[in-house]
Please model this.
Amino acid sequence: MKLFNLNDPGWGRGSNEDSDSSRNKPGQSGGPPDLDEVWRDFNRRLGGLFGKRSSRRGGGGGPMGGGGLPQLPGPSPKFLLGLFLVAVLLWLASGFMIVQEGQVAVVTRFGKYTHTLSPGLQWRLPYPIEDSQDVNISQLRTFEVGFRGSSRNKVLPESLMLTHDENIVDVQFVVQYRLLPDGAPAYLFNTSQPDESVRQAAETAMREIVGRKHMDFVLYSGRTEVASEVQALAQSILDRYATGIQISTVAIQNVQPPEQVQAAFDDAVKAGQDRERQINEGNAYASRVVPEAEGQASRMTQDAEGYSAQIVGQAQGDTARFDSIESEFSKAPSITRERLYLETMQDIMVASSKVMIDAQVGNNMLYLPLDQIMKQAASVPSPGAGSGSSSSAGAASTQAAAGAQAASGSANASSAGRRGAAPSGLDSLMVSPYSR
Model:
């Protein structure tokens, strides 16, 4: 089967023999080809492609029909079958798709959800049997409530809220959320406007939580607690409606009273701060004074108890000593009296620097204990004290003289006692404290 070539110089004139014979025909020259002949040759070659030959009609054998229009041959069944198979293959191949990372493809069959395709190369039935919609489940979506872009661009209908103590606060916060791993079908089909549903749920939760709290708690100490409670309440609302959305963060950007009462509110806050400062100062003073007073009271109580114990113990000791002496005195009065006398004189002599000895024969002899005098001189203050040192020395000499006289009297008394005539005054002095 020959195919026509547009570069063939005999194209449109049939075979070479026909062209040669036509050149030899009289009345024809080597000019351009005849259009009718070109059209007949085109129909003949096209019919050869489809396995049919064009039917000749009319006496001239031309390709014209009854109306004078050219007639094309119809396609063969094999060609139509091959063309159909190619179309089916192309239609099936259109079901292949690539799902990007972080996304899923939600497949619907005649509009009804069937399954979800994970990231990668996937295949579904081609359109119009099945259709798919890509949903980004890794994207972190954010929206603002109470402002847009900057805190200066306030949206008062969203931000003004009423507290439990009937005060109005201006609350501006940001909500961030993303889809659950299996929440794409719920995000697409369970709600008509899922993003707007999240906004309304967050605003509703914030108004409810703020309505339960006092104004000072919302403004100062309770921002974190309020944000966590709002996140939990908004998530419960979204789960109740099965939106397939998970709230990641609720961040309070700014909380303040309305601008119309800002000056009065600042004055009230300053007064409250002054009150707190004075209360703290009073508590600090009380914390300092009360323990000090308690310590002084405890010390005085302990001193009194110690003094009481000392006096009672001393009295009990004196009583016990007196009882022991009294018992010994009742057993041997003379010996006990002599022992007491000697102990008393020993105490007196130890403190005296001069001793007068009463001798039986001759004059009284003055005994100077040098060792005692040196000890007393060492205990006397230095002479730098001036008149005080002289007065101390005079007092020491006076004390020494008195001691000497007492020693002389005691010596005389002892000698007289040895002679058998003891003075009655000394006996009364020594016996009267222990007499019955």
